[in-house]
């Protein structure tokens, strides 16, 4: 499956004449992922979608769940006490931590995601927002996160789990 995905991405890049050297927007959020090559990076850039807000922007990818109304409402609706530490489980693009850090100037938010691609994308989005000093992302499952960082105590834990019709995971 990985080999076929890589071949499909190479074909996409070649067919669309994408030249990664001609863009100044190139930022490879996946550089820490083994076997992430030029073609995968070019494919990601060609396929990403920019979601623009007033004070920040979110890059999305076909490999990560898109921003949805639930996530936007959750980020706008939750009340957080000043100085709180917040954990976002399954952070995806990082929209909820970024939204919360925009609304509450003294909170710190940690986003975790089991997907290394989602974590890298969230890291890219968090790094380029005005509140990056109060945000962090960790590429771990919840179980591994709890084992690796046991002293962490959070005042709030939030999540926006994906919805699957009839409880069936997509293939």
Give an account of the 3D structure:
- A four-stranded parallel beta sheet has the order 5-4-3-6.
- The protein starts with a helix and ends in a 12-residue tail after the last strand.
- The relative contact order is 0.15.
- Helix 4 links the parallel strand 3 and strand 4.
- The chain is of the alpha/beta class and 171 residues long.
- It is globular, with a radius of gyration of 17 Å.
- The chain contains six helices and six strands, in the order ααββαβαβαβαβ.
- Helix 1 packs across helix 2 and helix 3 runs parallel beside helix 4.
Throw out a few tags for this protein.
alpha/beta; 4-stranded parallel β-sheet; 6 helices
Order of helices and strands: HHEEHEHEHEHE
Beta-strand percentage range: 15-25%
- Beta-strand segment tally: 6
Overall pLDDT level: 77
Using only CA atoms, what is the Rg? 17 Å
Distance between the termini: 12 Å
Q: Helix fraction?
A: 25-40%
The biggest beta sheet, please?
Answer: 4 strands, parallel
Uncertain segments are: 16-30
- Class by alpha and beta content: alpha/beta
Total of helices? 6
Strand order of the largest sheet: 5-4-3-6
Shape: globular
């Amino acid at each position: 499956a990985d080999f076929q995905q890589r071949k499909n991405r190479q074909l996409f890049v070649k067919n669309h004449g994408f030249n990664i050297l001609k863009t100044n927007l190139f930022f490879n959020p996946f550089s820490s992922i083994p076997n992430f090559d030029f073609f995968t990076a070019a494919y990601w850039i060609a396929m990403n979608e920019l979601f623009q807000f007033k004070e920040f922007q979110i890059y999305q990818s076909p490999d990560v769940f898109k921003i949805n109304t639930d996530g936007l409402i959750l980020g706008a609706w939750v009340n957080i006490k000043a100085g709180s530490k917040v954990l976002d489980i399954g952070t995806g693009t990082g929209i909820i931590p970024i939204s919360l850090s925009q609304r509450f100037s003294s909170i710190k938010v940690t986003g975790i995601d089991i997907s290394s691609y989602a974590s890298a994308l969230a890291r890219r989005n968090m790094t380029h927002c005005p509140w990056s000093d109060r945000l962090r992302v960790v590429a771990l499952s919840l179980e591994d996160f709890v084992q690796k960082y046991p002293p962490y105590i959070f005042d709030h834990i939030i999540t926006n789990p994906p919805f699957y019709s009839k409880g069936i995971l997509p293939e």
